[in-house]
Amino acid sequence: MPDDAGLQALREAARLSPDNLPLRRHLAGQLLAKGYLADAEAEFRATLALSPQDPELITGLADAFIRQSAFGEAMAALEPLLSVPGYPPAAGVLAARALLGEGDTAKAAYRYFEATSRDASVADQELEARITGASRPATPPPHGAAGGSPTAPPAVAPPPYAGAPAPPGAASPFLPSVPLPGDASTAEVERSGVSFADVAGMETVKEALRIKLLLPMQQPEMFAAFGKRAGGGVLLYGPPGAGKTHLARAAAGELGAAFVNVGLADILDMYIGNSERNLRATFDLARRNRPCVLFFDEVDALAGRRSDMRHAHGRQLVNQFLSELDGVDQHANEGVLVLAATNAPWYVDVAFRRPGRLDQPVFVPPPDQQARAAILRILCRDKPLAEMDYDAVAQVTEHFVGADLKGVVDRAVEAKLQQSLNAGRPIPLTTQDLLAAARSVRPTAVREWMGTARNYVMHANDSGAWDELMPWVKAKW
């Protein structure tokens, strides 16, 4: 704790008034200004819990990271601000400082000059000198260049304001080779609040994830002895609503890693080439926040069979995806755990199942009776309850997946809420309420999915890729 009477008084005031946002913000700023970087980082983190979108707190935390040379963490903290048009110019200067620390001079220059073009008061001459010095060509300009001296450094103009088109054929030493919107991921870094304890059943699936993804991160020395590195990919597949996304979040929570949930809108773009850049930026985001679980839902839309594609840009996106999974070197994706989920694994290009990529398909089955009872117990744990017989409800919900069971609980709660409002007091949920709701709900898509799976297992399984499904499709559905 800092030996500073003023800071001690501020800390005591913050302790007595922990929800006082202006006071906590002032304390964090003072800690940063006086050089107590670890304490400032901790205070900014704690205060951000009170106001997660506060730009001043986000930039303060990023500044604390930069002063500790934690440049990747600084960029991760700034991502929510930088993804919004018209972000605070001060955030752009901090991003430039972090990017320069990571060695990316081109992007650092872009961020710096774009920010200072909107607000000259945030200019930092020392930072600008470092950027221009790193970007200046090593050889002198040709005779007759600006300045009239064959040895004078080139006159450099700031890059245009973000969004302003450059003249045709013009090249700037500060601008990246592609526009910033195509080079910045819209995916967000999260921290998962669930773990495997919040996932009912699926012990075989959880064990496969532990061995493939989690244990190499938790016991790196053991795996290093056998030449196994932390990282890799797993393809989760199964019927809709079986819990693939929930399982991915739980894997991140189990590891205490960052979680990036990638949607189709984060990648796909109407302009040719932008989808590939978005995919590259998303992997870069995960690499900056390692250890990180990078989750692609509905991955068949991004990794479909190239033989089925009529347009070249679709095949190029698949090629880019494969390239990112491989990484530019063998350590590029170390600490990045790639989880992909799909309801249609047979539409995913076979190249993704090559070792080192999504080489381990893991079937996420519909829950059995014991797992259904456990799911119901988790879904009901924060609700007023009478004596419950979850096994009885599980018996009448055969073929229900997790999403279906959540629908049963939601329907029962709505009916019980109506009774409670009429009575003027909370009335506990009973087994009969769940049974009544279960009888009024039909399972969604498991039967249809199993019918499709049966066709592939029986008639398109020469490689043995779908042998895991054999016991399931032979069952009566």
UniProtKB/TrEMBL annotation:
An annotated Gene Ontology molecular function: ATP binding
Keywords from the named record: ATP-binding, Coiled coil, Nucleotide-binding
Presence of keyword Metal-binding: no
Entry-linked Gene3D superfamilies: 1.10.8.60, P-loop containing nucleotide triphosphate hydrolases (3.40.50.300), Tetratricopeptide repeat domain (1.25.40.10)
Pfam family, one: AAA
Domain of life: Bacteria
Ranges of Pro residues composition bias in the record: 151-168
Spans annotated as Disordered: 133-168
Residue span(s) of domain AAA+ ATPase: 230-368
Keyword set includes DNA-binding: no
InterPro entries with a match to the protein in the record: AAA+_ATPase, AAA_ATPase_domain, ATPase_AAA_core, ATPase_AAA_CS, P-loop_NTPase, TPR-like_helical_dom_sf
Family stated for the protein in its record: Belongs to the AAA ATPase family.
Protein name, UniProt field: AAA+ superfamily predicted ATPase
Originating species: Nonomuraea thailandensis
Lineage, opening ranks: Bacteria, Bacillati, Actinomycetota, Actinomycetes, Streptosporangiales
